[in-house]
Amino acid sequence: MNKVLLILLLISTQSVLTMHAADSVAVKSSPGPVLGGHLFQPLTGVPGPFIRTVSQVSVGGGTTLNLALPPIVIGDRFVIAPQGSLAIVSMVAAHEQKIKNWLSVYAAFKLVGRLGTNVTSLFYQGVNTATTFNLGWKVKVIETERFLGTLSLDLTNGNVAVIDVNQWVRGIIDSQAVISQNPLIQTKPALFTGLTARSAYAINETFGATAFIEAIYGEAIVRGGSAGVFFNAGFSLNSDLRLVTDVPLALTAGVVYRQTPSVEDSESSSSLVTGSLRFGYSGTQNFSFGLQFNGQYGDVGGEKQAFFIGGALDMRFYY
Fold first, then answer.
1. DSSP code of residue 245
2. Dihedrals φ, ψ of 231, to 5°?
3. CA-to-CA distance for 130 and 116, rounded, in angstroms?
4. Distance between CA atoms of 24 and 39, rounded to whole angstroms?
5. Quick one: pLDDT at residue 28?
6. C-alpha span between 117 and 84 (Å, rounded)
7. Which of 87, 192, 276, 283 has a C-alpha 20 to 30 A away from that of 19?
8. pLDDT tens digits, one per residue of 48-81
9. What is the pLDDT of residues 91-117, one digit of tens each?
10. Where in the chain does DSSP place strands (E)?
11. 190 forms bridges with which residues in the sheet?
């Protein structure tokens, strides 16, 4: 009788250990941003609320369409420049490290450049490059079966280098010489901090939505460098077609309202709205691979309207 009881005890113990091992394997095999059975896909520009260990590399570019340029006056002569274009290139490298189930820390480096693609646009808009380094902490606030909400604190240090050919040439004409008070290259450092509320909601296994709103205080990296408070907000809608069509394809669409300026709109005096569409691969939770297209309409130089269109190749690896 005692031997029978001992055998049953060993079998039950082995079963419990097997269940715990299976649960552990299941947890480790699901590193991606899953909520309510839905695998979310990221969208550049809409920060996600998920606390994960993930590395990101993103490379993109874009251009303006039919940028109307005003006449340029040099002395008593007019240089007519009816149209031109600007090229934009960008690179992002980031890593987020999960410390606890409710806490993560992340860092990001971003490089963006903007330059004229012909003589007239280069003369009028010059060349702008910006480098920013971001350090942040993310804390989970609420989590249910289908909803996740987090708060994050960000510290960002940036620097903009501007080559203003137009102003430099005018300075030479006015002073009749090349002087140190009229440099060709100018740099503008900036430091600011922000608080961001992020959320995700799983509608079902096929559809999900994310949203964010943030307040940023500090020196604007462009637009004169004056200190102030800026607000950004946005949302995205994600669909995982793998569950419907057996094709591992995910479509994500989003809209972002932004008051904080960047190199693309460094001379814009107003807030901007950017629309994005991403085609991604949803066949695994270990990495996310997608091609994102962006469109933006705004003013350049406070006078002329321009439409920016661009694309980016985004890769993220979950551990």
1. H
2. -125, 140
3. 16
4. 19
5. 44
6. 8
7. 283
8. 999 999 999 999 999 887 666 666 665 666 666 5
9. 999 999 999 999 999 999 999 888 777
10. 34-35, 38-39, 54-65, 67-68, 72-74, 77-79, 83-84, 86-100, 103-116, 127-143, 147-163, 185-202, 207-219, 227-240, 249-258, 272-281, 287-300, 304-318
11. 158
